[in-house]
Amino acid sequence: xxxxxxxxxxxxxxxxxxxxxxxxxxxxxxxxxxxxxxxxxxxxxxxxxxxxxxxxxxxxxxxxxxxxxxxxxxxxx
Length: 77
Fold this sequence. Notes:
This protein is mainly α.
């Protein structure tokens, strides 16, 4: 089983969360990974690519579903 808890800060860790983990996993071995969330910023190059994409001819536009289907068809994903 895999469970992810998203917290605003470490201060939000309460005994209720620990009790929920204990109740869900009981005597099973578990791994707890703590990851600091990073503020992600786009580079100037990334922004330029996005701007170019926004300027593309809309008649050639593919929906996300069409793009995923094309990738699945081409690469067997």
